[in-house]
Here is the input.
Amino acid sequence: MLFLKDIWSVFVAELRRIFHDGGVMLLFFLATLLYPLIFYAVYQNEMVWDLPVAVVDESQGVESRRFTHKLNATPEVNVAYKCCTMSEAERLMRQHDVRGIVYFPNDYDSRIAKLETGRVCLFCDMSSFLYYRSVYSAASAVMLDEMKQIELQRCELQGATETDAEGQVTPVSFEDVKLFNAPGGFASFLVPGLLVLVLHQTLFLGIGVLFGTGRERRNTPKKILELIDKSVVRVTLGRAFAYFAIYLPLTFVNLFVLPRLFGYPYIGSVDHLVLFLLPFLLATIFFSTTVATFFRERDAVILVFIFFSLILYFLSGMVWPQCAMPPFWRYFSYIFPSTPAIQGFVRINSMSARLPEVGFEFGLLWAQAVVYFFTTCICLKIAKKRFKAKSEAENDVVESLPSDVE
Amino acid sequence: MNTFFNSIRREWRYVVEHPRYILLLTLGLVFSYIFFITLMAQGQPQKLPIAIVDHDGSYLSRRLCHEINATQGVDVVAVYDNHTQARQAMQRQEIYAFFEIPKGIYSDLLAFKAPSLALYANNTYLLAGTLSYKSLATIGKLAAAAVQREILRKKGYSEKQVMGIIQPVELDAHLISNPTANYQPYVLTTVLPGILGVMVLLFSIYRVSEERKNGTMQAWVDEADGNMFVALAGKLFPYTLWFSMLGILGNIILFYYCHYTMLGSFLELSLLVVLFVIVQQALAVFLVGLVPEQHMSICVGAIYGMLSFTMSGFSYPVTAMIPFMQGFSNIFPLRHYYLSYVDIALYGSNLGQYWINVVVLLLFVMLGLVGGWLLQKEMNKVSSVQ
Here is the structure.
């Protein structure tokens, strides 16, 4: 009974400290909700539509003109300029007025007429992966379509009937299905993972600031300091419940409400998601409290670890596939709760996976939660010992310091 | 000039006494370089795991499996009996794509029934999904072309006639300045200077606001004869040198060790790095002048700094954003660094092309002067109260 009472008093004390600290509130509440809004504004268009390209048509024939028309009709590309010479198109490319150049050599039509292969040259702007992807996929889609049409004509020229020609040109047909994110939208791919990362990072940085402030200003609540002597387990649990209570609604908003509100994928089963997110919060909280015991200054954690958000996202395997990572980095990524959390959340939420399919991630999160719980207790114990030794050495200067709470 | 050196000396004392943060940041930067360069060492993900659902189990379907396995981009890790197994494997992320070969494909083919192959690719992972899709689609088309040729031959066309029918158009793609579509230059050339930028921004905010927090502003400015601008310059100058050096060193690694394309002058890019570092420091001064509390200014700096990665447009192009966001992107120095880098390195252009970005960066430096002026005013107020 006393055990529960102690946990409760730590819980209350920690909550009070959080709500009195404007900086932590800023991280916990404002950053968590602000970032998703900005992501929404930035990635609203999902795709790169109507990229301007220049066409240089030295062939000036029926075939090249039909190719140009079809290219203009694709959603990805817009034939914005028709240039007479390559150098003119090159100048446009240099000035970023166009993102690609399609060039028909002067023998394009005549080669096709002679039953040979006509060559189209495509120059892609490689300054962004999406420019390249859009221009290239539009051009190759048109190329395939043209190929089929000309092949049909040629078969008919050689005496085949229409149905015969069809069978000769496409003996095997293709059906391609792009699963889970059919148009290849950028936000649908990027943002669900980022939403998890935002929760992970604000929790991590917020706890870091909280602990750093405790060390810097000696404003750790009296109740907690007293209880640390008695049992680090109670303190750790009480604190964890405080963060958990704050992040439960935030997680709900970020991972349940926002995808539905902003139109990101949400085809996962809710109960599986809830079960999965439970160890995510616990693992993140205990991971953060473990690391946070090392901070001695209020802003140290932000200063030193802010850039880590990027590294965590790349480690999660959303951008660079996990199978292509060197083994070292793959194992390294298992240290952080963000890796299994992002993987698992995206697979349940966007790919409708169920718990058995994310069994590894689920297990890893629980393992992290347990391991980091114990490391938190151990680190806290060590920190307390050091603190005691230090304050005895300083002849209890600590006591005389004003316990300034914001 | 003397006062300037006094200010530098004062800051140098701090560096020697408290080397912790500067050391940690430098280590963090080195870690980032090592991390990103080794993480994506392949350039383009190779051997992406895919699977085949073989309903037919015929000679043809098995040959197709072999062909797929022989390509560089993908690797057949499993052959499943049914669609559900393959989908579950995809949800377990064991595979990124799979081919489904329908029952009776071989006999249908022989009977000219135009059987259809299905290709499923997981687009939740954009890069892996796109690449595995591209590899499989290419294989599929090649296989179809082979079948087509076989059929035409059997129909009695001569070899010359066959060649005259197939492949009437050919696409010859030239990927400017990145012929292998290497993914590394896309990310690294902007992200790594960006990390440097965030570090400089936050550290400068921390250092300048530390004086206010410790109540040592008077002593600090006195060292510079009461001139805030000299005091600021002296305080930040050692870090300008240090971080510019790190940035240029980083670019040497990217362009000379990793051999990313550099068509223009490396000197111009290096000068740009120095300007970029100065801009971050100027922004830091501006933020400190504007936001009176240290923690708040660091938080604002962190949010702004992390946003610059999104807004620089190296991943999702700014031109594809809504107009408001396109305008908004201009207030991030990293955006201008990225644009200038593209002009210098990928197109070999000179200042005549990207001068506008340099002008914007210089405007940011002006903001730093405004910040200095705000701090000077604050100082005067403090000293007049005393």
